[in-house]
Write a structure and sequence with these properties.
The structure holds two protein chains of two kinds. Chain A is α+β, with helices and mostly antiparallel strands. In chain A, about 55% of the residues lie in helices and about 10% in strands. In chain A, a hairpin with a 6-residue loop joins strand 4 and strand 5 (about 180-185). Chain B is of the alpha+beta class. In chain B, helix 1 runs parallel beside helix 6 (about 80-100), helix 9 (about 250-285) runs antiparallel to helix 10 and helix 11 (about 330-360) packs antiparallel against helix 12. The model of chain B has no long low-confidence stretch (mean pLDDT about 90). In chain B, a hairpin with a 2-residue loop joins strand 4 (about 155-160) and strand 5 (about 160-170). In chain B, about 50% of the residues lie in helices and about 15% in strands. The longest helix of chain B has about 40 residues, at about 250-285. The interface of A and B includes residues 278, 286, 290 and 315 of A.
């Protein structure tokens, strides 16, 4: 048993942590409310090399391992969850390309990612997609092109910036076995609802996109289906891990904020952390957060080595998101009435975790 | 580098003690609970005697001779991690019996840390015999539990001896111990700096056993009350020196014991919960065809998966606390956190497992009921949950 990180992981974690502290955390309000602020931060991330964690400049260059990515995601989420989501989208999109055995598909996806180094143009779709098989022109080809038709991509969801240009993902296409990889351009998709989550009433940065119709959808189905299904299962598991890392990152930020606040806020003549009710609450948060984080590390390690059992992963997913929401809710309570105000980020963290829970 | 699995040697040890717990302890669990005493058939078993002897320093005892792999021997106290592996496996076998097994128990770490060569030889020598022997660790008092610095037991220096007066309670194996590490103050004005550990052997005039405290579970442990009335002991029974030394202070050493034992106690709780899950899982598999609707079984499978996940989170926190200690780093906060989370999780799991077993009317309900009683003790063993959480809170703003 060893809980120390290797050099690669430590370097990336440190880089993400610094970026979160210097660029994201100080401007949390701007990032939520001001579209321009987010674009500027993306440019800085590109300049700092942070987005190189999911490189696109060579076919053989692998993304960083899932544990490193989870560490980075958690650190970035402490600064801003929306920003972390964009990096997660890039990472997962790169992974889709990497597991694809179709050079055409792979190159196209990687090229699009590479050409958007400082922007949130790629979003990852997850497998709730359904399309009619009747509109697939050629299911025997490695890549099939769907006809322009009523493509019922009902209830397909993406967690993406409003300016998203492409969707990359995997999903089930009805009447066809297994999962398919998908690449679709934004202007070819009819977005039924481009609405904010109800928990994020005036934030212009993160959207749930309900896709109601699509044209010219590129669907990829490899010949070696069994192996491929396993790869896509892994991809879905990685998505679960990274979304959980985001939730725990947000919870971590909330916890640190609560500790700092309760050391400074004076009631009844002393800092509120010295009141037992607050102290016990903070200790509970610390315990639960630490344990959930270790479980995430373990799941990531297992995933990197070939994948955990799906049932275990789902149970863990529930656990991570419950811990995260409990912590964020408790942080609001520590802040008292102030926690409800948008002067402090506590209410934002609750909204974000609630949102992430709805996406899992 | 991050590695959250046991290494091959640790896995062997785990296998050894899984066997020990299931095949040697568990068959006696119900009887021991009923008797509230250690069954003689168990305490005289060669494996149990070997386990007792293995707690002496390696140069005296040559460690733990393997049960399954006889060509290997282990120094069981070489790391907190090994203690935890043993704790979880024997806790899964039967935690009450594990805690009540012959050996030095909690007194071992402090004696190894503070004892002089003569004291170590004399006191551990007891455990090299072929009959069961026990030792005990006496810190808690009726009015000084969590706040141990409020202890009122005194040690008065007279000529070349100490005279101890006071009352200790909640002392595991206290009624059967050959010798006891007793914490007493040599100067009540100096608070924790006045507290020193002493060795008192059974039969010393003025030392007697009070009540064996009737308890909900862990009955075989015989949680006892010890009474000291003008109990005179020779001066060579002081552990760690009379004058205060920052690094070898008796009180500080006592607290260090908690940093070692809290992750171990957490692992024990994890072991109990694992046993509860195993019993429930076995019941589900055995009785699946005969009761309930398939939907209920699916729900139960899912509940079991959730339990396992929560238990794994608690286990990892215990491992982290042990890893920090073994690597020479301060683990005070993590040790407390590990113990709190493990005990809380284990209590919830045992309770839920019993509910589910009753609802589905599967077998093993009596065993689960015993586990529920036993595991409740872990709420306060080695520090109550609330006090540990307050100690964590104090460290958060540092």
């Amino acid at each position: 048993v060893d809980f120390s990180l290797n050099e690669h992981q430590s370097v990336w974690k440190g880089k993400a942590s610094r970026f979160a502290d210097e660029e994201l955390r100080p401007s949390w309000r701007d990032l939520e409310l001001n579209r321009g602020a987010m674009t500027a931060v993306y440019k800085k991330a590109g300049a700092s090399g942070l987005i190189d964690i999911c490189p696109t400049d060579g076919k053989d260059k692998e993304c960083s391992d899932i544990l490193t990515m989870a560490l980075v995601t958690e650190e970035l989420s402490k600064g801003d969850c929306g920003f972390a989501a964009m990096l997660v989208n890039r990472y997962l999109s790169s992974r889709v390309a990497q597991i694809s055995t179709s050079h055409e598909f792979r190159n196209e996806v990687l090229e699009r990612i590479a050409n958007s180094p400082d922007g949130p143009e790629i979003a990852f779709l997850w497998p709730r997609m359904a399309a009619s098989s009747s509109v697939i022109e050629d299911t025997t080809a490695e890549t099939a092109r769907l006809k322009e038709a009523d493509m019922p991509l009902d209830d397909s969801l993406s967690y993406a910036h409003s300016s998203v240009e492409y969707f990359v993902g995997c999903g089930r296409v009805s009447h066809l076995p297994g999962f398919h990889l998908v690449l679709v351009e934004r202007d070819k998709v009819k977005i039924l609802k481009e609405h904010l989550d109800p928990f994020s009433p005036d934030s212009p940065r993160v959207y749930r996109l309900h896709l109601g119709g699509a044209r010219d959808l590129k669907v990829f189905r490899p010949k070696n289906c069994d192996r491929h299904d396993k790869l896509i299962d892994n991809l879905i598991a990685e998505r679960m891990i990274l979304f959980s890392a985001m939730a725990l990152g947000v919870a971590g930020a909330a916890f640190e904020y609560a500790v700092a606040y309760s050391g400074e806020r004076i009631t009844f003549g002393r800092p509120i952390i010295q009141h037992q009710a607050i102290g016990l609450r903070l200790a509970d948060m610390y315990i639960d957060l630490t344990a959930a984080r270790l479980l995430l590390w373990e799941a990531s390690s297992k995933q990197a080595e070939g994948g955990a059992e799906a049932s275990q992963m789902h149970a863990a997913l529930d656990y991570w998101h419950k811990v995260a929401l409990d912590i964020a809710s408790d942080v609001m309570r520590v802040l008292g009435g102030r926690g409800y105000l948008r002067d402090h980020p506590a209410e934002k963290w609750v909204r974000e975790i609630q949102f992430l829970r709805s996406l899992r | 580098m991050l590695e959250l699995r046991l290494d091959p040697l640790e896995s062997l040890l785990q296998e050894e003690f899984r066997y020990f717990g299931r095949e040697i302890l568990r068959p006696f669990a119900a009887e021991a609970d009923r008797l509230a005493d250690m069954p003689a058939d168990l305490s005289h078993k060669s494996e149990v005697i070997s386990f007792m002897r293995a707690h002496a320093p390696e140069e005296m005892s040559s460690g733990w001779p393997g049960l399954l792999y006889k060509d290997k021997s282990y120094d069981l106290s070489s790391s907190v991690k090994l203690r935890m592996i043993i704790g979880e496996e024997l806790g899964c076998g039967d935690a009450a019996l594990y805690l009540a097994l012959p050996g030095p128990g909690l007194a071992e770490p402090i004696l190894k840390q503070l004892g002089s060569p003569e004291q170590i030889k004399r006191l551990f020598g007891v455990f090299l015999e072929s009959v069961p022997r026990w030792a005990a660790f006496a810190m808690t008092e009726p009015n000084a539990g969590s706040d141990v610095t409020a202890m009122t037991t005194t040690a008065r220096r007279e000529n070349k001896s100490y005279v101890i007066n006071g009352r200790k309670w909640f002392i595991g194996n206290g009624s059967r111990a050959d010798w006891v590490v007793v914490f007493a103050t040599i100067n009540s004005n100096r608070g924790p700096f006045g507290i020193r550990p002493f060795i008192v052997t059974r039969g010393t005039p003025g030392f007697r056993i009070g009540r064996i405290l009737p308890s909900m579970g862990l009955r075989v442990l015989q949680i006892s009350e010890l009474i000291f009335e003008d109990c005179r002991i020779a001066e060579d029974n002081l552990l760690g020196g009379y004058e205060f030394e920052a690094k070898r202070s008796g009180f500080r050493a006592g607290l260090q014991v908690f940093n070692v034992m809290r992750p171990v106690v957490g692992a024990l709780a994890v072991g109990i919960a694992r046993a509860a899950i195993d019993y429930l899982d076995d019941g589900v598999k055995t009785d699946r065809a005969s009761h309930c609707q398939a939907r209920s079984w699916r729900e139960m499978d899912r509940e079991i998966e959730v339990m396992k996940t929560r238990l794994q989170a608690a286990r990892l926190l215990c491992w982290k606390a042990a890893w920090l200690y073994d690597n020479g780093r301060d683990n005070t906060r993590e040790a407390s956190a590990a113990k709190v989370l493990a005990s809380r999780t284990a209590i919830n799991i045992c309770s839920r497992a019993l509910d589910l077993a009753r609802r589905a009317n599967i077998s093993n309900q009596l065993t689960l009921e015993k586990l529920c009683r036993d595991v409740r003790a872990f709420d306060f063993l080695e520090g109550t949950e609330d006090v540990l959480k307050l100690s964590i809170a104090k460290t958060l703003t540092r």
